[in-house]
Inverse folding.
């Protein structure tokens, strides 16, 4: 709290401007110089905040990250801005004009909601976190739409708001928490809070078991740039009990239709690697139907087909070779083909990609590139070689 208060002072803000973009290798020299004219504690706080702002660029972009304030946990746990903006647009499309943001953290979601024109009550029980959220609302010119309150979310009356957004803490002293009832507060509490308002969204871990999703919720798995970021349980939408996968940027949304598992079929000319959000949402069958394909193996989420079909929900590869798993044969083939760049992907294999790459890549790197899939085909360990499909 003291560090944040110092940084919010005129001297602190000026110092933050001065250390902006400091290279970590230069920190000692910069700190030594600045301590001649500023308190040592303030210099340390400014340099620490500069490091956090640099880390935050990946989530918030350079413009916002350069103005915002962060804590180490806040940077790590904050929602990526693109995901928060997508969720805010969904709220706005539902006609929501006010949201109680429970467990608001440093305010990433509150910022996105406010930028969508939604009035926000942002609540967090940690004093430093709440103060940081308040500082961020002010720094980005959104204080008129965001009220930050330091309080226990379980004691907050949300009756005056159209919707609830809750992001329970999913980390403890030993790392990630996988049991939804071990969240803080527990998922069961968040679900009851959601049911009290016309609309709600609960952010949960993407690994949440499907059986833990309430029957009256719509479950949405979201990926951004190919990386699965979160799952969201929506209440009050017109599709309770359904699932969807949403891929950003786009957005591209694939709704579930309850299709049966795709059939297992022989390896075709093309292999489709579904996006992680599609896999988490159990929607591989929907992708297989889109591309007219089936599975390589009943237990593995690789789809194979004879024709190339454009889909945002999977990456397509043209398969050139199929081999039983054999390191020596793979090494010989790569040498013969003059392969210098090898991408290794795996599903259903215990082999580590880096270990295989070290064993098989020729010492004299060639000009060609290959992707090898370590997987199973009808239960048999198999290597499929190919390259990204075009057309």
């Amino acid at each position: 709290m003291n560090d944040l208060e110092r940084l919010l002072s005129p001297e602190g803000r000026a110092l933050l401007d001065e250390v902006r973009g400091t290279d970590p290798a230069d920190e000692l020299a910069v700190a030594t110089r600045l301590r001649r004219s500023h308190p040592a504690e303030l210099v340390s706080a400014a340099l620490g905040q500069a490091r956090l702002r640099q880390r935050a660029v990946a989530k918030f972009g350079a413009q916002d990250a350069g103005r915002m304030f962060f804590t180490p946990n806040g940077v790590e746990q904050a929602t990526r801005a693109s995901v928060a903006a997508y969720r805010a647009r969904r709220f706005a499309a539902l006609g929501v004009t006010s949201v109680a943001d429970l467990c608001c953290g440093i305010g990433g979601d509150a910022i996105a909601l406010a930028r969508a024109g939604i009035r926000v009550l942002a609540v967090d029980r940690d004093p430093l976190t709440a103060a940081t959220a308040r500082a961020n609302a002010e720094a980005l010119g959104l204080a008129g739409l965001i009220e930050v309150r330091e309080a226990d979310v379980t004691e907050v009356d949300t009756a005056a708001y159209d919707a609830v957004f809750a992001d329970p803490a999913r980390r403890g002293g030993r790392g990630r928490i996988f049991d939804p009832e071990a969240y803080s507060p527990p998922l069961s509490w968040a679900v009851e809070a959601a049911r009290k308002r016309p609309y709600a969204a609960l952010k949960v871990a993407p690994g949440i078991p499907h059986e833990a999703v309430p029957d009256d919720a719509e479950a949405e798995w979201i990926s951004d740039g190919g990386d699965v970021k979160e799952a969201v349980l929506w209440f009050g939408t017109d599709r309770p009990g359904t699932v969807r996968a949403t891929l950003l940027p786009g957005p591209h949304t694939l709704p579930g239709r309850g299709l049966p598992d795709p059939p297992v079929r022989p390896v075709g000319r093309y292999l489709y690697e579904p996006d992680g959000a599609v896999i988490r949402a159990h929607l591989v069958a929907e992708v297989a139907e889109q591309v007219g394909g089936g599975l390589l193996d009943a237990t593995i989420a690789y789809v194979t087909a004879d024709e190339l079909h454009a889909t945002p929900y999977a990456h397509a590869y043209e398969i050139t070779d199929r081999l039983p798993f054999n390191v020596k044969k793979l090494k010989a083939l790569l040498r013969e083909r003059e392969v210098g760049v090898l991408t290794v992907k795996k599903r259903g294999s215990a082999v580590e990609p880096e270990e295989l790459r070290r064993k098989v890549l020729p010492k004299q790197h060639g000009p060609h590139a290959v992707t090898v899939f370590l997987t199973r085909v009808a239960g048999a360990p198999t290597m499929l070689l190919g390259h990204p499909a075009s057309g």
